[in-house]
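Below is how a single chain appears once it has passed through the pipeline. First comes the sequence as given, then the structure the pipeline wrote out for it. We keep one example in the README because the format questions we get most often are answered faster by looking than by reading.
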Amino acid sequence: MAILPGFPLLPDSDDDENVVELPSGQLVCCRHALVVCGKCCVDFSFMTEGDTDDDYDDESQPDQESNDEEDPMDLDADAESPQAPLTGQMLDSLLGQPRKRGTGRVLPTKFTPPTPTTTPLALFHGVNTYFYFARYVHREDSSKGLIFTDGACLDNGKSNPRAGWGFVAGPPELIGTYSCGNVQGRLESKGPFGDDGAQTSNRAELRAVCAALGFRHWPGEGFKTLVFATDSEYVVEGATKWVQGWLKNGWKTAKGGSVKNKDLWEMLLGQVERFADYGMKIEFWRIGRELNTVADKLAKEGAAIEDAPKDYSPVVGI
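Resulting structure:
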C-alpha cells in the first residue's frame, strides 16, 4: 500500500476542524471520534503506544488456575509471534474501505456540461480547501469536485506491454507541502479480488478511477458529487451505459462473450455503492485528450515503471 502525506496531524491553530483533542490529551478525528479512522485517513495511535490493557479483562478466555509447572507446549510463550504480512484487502478493511463486488444497486451517471464546448477548467477551478488540500471545485457549487484520470500502455501489442495509470485531484500549481492528490502507478498483475489481469490501456483507465475513488473518503471533504473527467470512451460509456446490459446478462456481452476486466468493473461499482451510502454521487465526463494532458503524463510515468506489482494494493492520501 502506498500512503501519501496530506494534512499535518498536529494542527497549528484552533481553526482546524479535522482533529479534536480529548480531555486526556488524546487526538481523534472530529467526524467519528476515532483514534484510527479509515474514513478520515488519520492515525493517532502513536499517542497510546505506551498504554497497557491491564484495566481490562480478557473475556474470550476461561479462567484458569495458576500452575507453576511449565507447560512443554508453551516453551516459546514469551517469544514474539511472527506476524503475517497484511494483504491489500486487509489494508482496505482497516482503512474503512472493505472491497466488495458491486451489484449495480447504484450506478454512476454522465455529467452534462452547460454547453458541448465547456471545458473542465472553465467550470471547475483549483482552490486550497480548509483541509489544506488543493482540489478542483465547481465554481458555483463547492459540493462538486472534479478528478482527471487516465491510463496508458507502453509497447501495446508486443510481448511485454506495460500499463500505468494516473489521476489528478488537484491543480499542480497549488500542490504544496500539505497537499496531495496527483498520483500515478504501475498496473498490477492481479486485480482487487485476485483475478489475473492483462496489461492494457483499458484496464489501466479503469484502475485510475478505482485508485482515485479509494484515495480519500471524499464525502469527508464536503463533496456530494465527484465528477471524473477522462478521455476514455470505454470508461464513460462502460460505467454509465454498457454495464447495465452486462449486469442483466450475467456479465456477458451482447455476443455472448465474457466481459473483459469484470473484476475492476465490479470494484468500481462497489466503490460507487459505498459512497452512495454516504450521500455522494459519481459522474463521468468524457473530455478531449488535449484537456487531459497532466493525467496522461502521470499514466505514462506509471507505465514506465519497470516491474509490475503482483497484487492490487490501495493508494491512500492522508
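The longest helix spans residues 233-248.

See the next section for the split statistics.
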